[in-house]
Design goal:
It comes from Isobaculum melis. With 268 residues, this protein is α/β, with parallel strands linked by helices. It has one domain: P-loop containing nucleotide triphosphate hydrolases (Rossmann fold), CATH 3.40.50.300. Helix content is 37%, strand content 24%. Bound molecules: adenosine-5'-triphosphate.
Length: 268
């Protein structure tokens, strides 16, 4: 199967040469294939967001290589990678432009990676029809609110819209960084279900960070657990499908030699 992402011996240290020097990623080797939906779990500070950030190109790696669709992108900047990568962050305010309307946000998403000539070109009628069709999939009645300012939407509506924007032009890779963590449990569950539907419909290769072990087990076909900058658990397909939270804790203990003490993971 086609490799979408390949990390080889990736290291990242922050604040090198200072008393706060922090070796966050310690030789990550990881290959993700077309259509894989990978959930990532790990305690606070394990390096999960850093992993997503180095894939997206927020900052360079110190050692190792990153390839997207067989092309090495290790030295490419975030802007150059953004055409291939869709992202949804934890904070509902980050993925959308507050002062713009729903249709303007979607038009910007449609022009991702191109010259952003939105305000010169305007939004075509055919584009508006397309946006309405896409918004219907969210089942939030947003297709009737194309001219509403995004700042007026609830957190859940904004995350659903951000998800749509991140996937409007099919990305090679979708990165979800705890994108439901700021939502109430009911809204979080519905945005997760929507995520699963969008990922399945478009067969998107997806990385999803979560703090919730049950969600990490429920969604996706592969689960990775990060601990102290290393991958300590990597299970896929049937093996993953058969795991319970307690099996996962046992596996973590066996592979890392430690017990999981992070309350935020255990209580989620
Ligand atoms: N830009 C940065 N500069 C300096 N240190 C950073 C930077 N980004 C992350 N770190 C540090 O790297 C470590 C790993 O952070 P990271 O955000 O990747 O962890 P995480 O597994 O996502 O944790 P959490 O679940 O708490 O979000 C932390 O100690 C963090 O303080």
């Amino acid at each position: 199967m086609e490799k979408v992402l390949e990390l080889k011996k990736v290291h990242k240290t922050f604040e090198v040469g200072t008393p706060n020097e922090n070796h966050v990623l310690k030789g990550i080797d990881l290959t993700i294939h077309q259509g894989d939906f990978v959930t990532i779990i790990g305690g606070n500070g394990a390096g999960k967001s850093t992993l997503l950030n180095i894939i997206a190109g927020n900052f360079p790696v110190d050692e190792g290589t990153i390839s997207l669709k067989g092309q090495e992108v290790t030295k490419k900047k975030m802007e150059a990678r953004s055409k291939e990568i869709g992202r949804v962050f934890q904070d509902p305010r980050t993925g959308t432009a507050t002062g713009l309307t729903i249709e303007e946000n979607l038009a910007l998403a449609l022009r991702r990676g191109k010259h952003k000539r939105l305000f010169k070109m305007g939004i075509r009628k055919t584009e508006k029809e397309f946006f309405k069709e896409q918004l219907k999939r969210l089942e939030l009645n947003l297709e009737n609110r194309l001219k509403s300012e995004v700042g007026l939407l609830s957190g859940g509506q904004r995350q659903a819209l951000t998800l749509l924007m991140a996937t409007l032009v099919t990305p090679q890779l979708l990165l979800l960084d705890e994108h439901t963590a700021a939502l109430d449990p009911k809204t979080s569950a519905s945005v997760l279900a929507l995520t699963n539907q969008v990922v399945a419909e478009s067969q998107l290769t997806t990385f999803m960070i979560t703090h919730n072990m049950e969600d990490a087990l429920k969604y996706g076909n592969r689960l990775i657990m990060l601990h102290d900058g290393k991958i300590v658990v990597d299970v896929a397909r049937e093996e993953k499908a058969d795991l319970s939270v307690s099996d996962l804790l046992t596996l973590f203990h066996k592979n890392s030699g430690e017990s999981l003490t992070d309350d935020s993971l255990l209580l989620a």
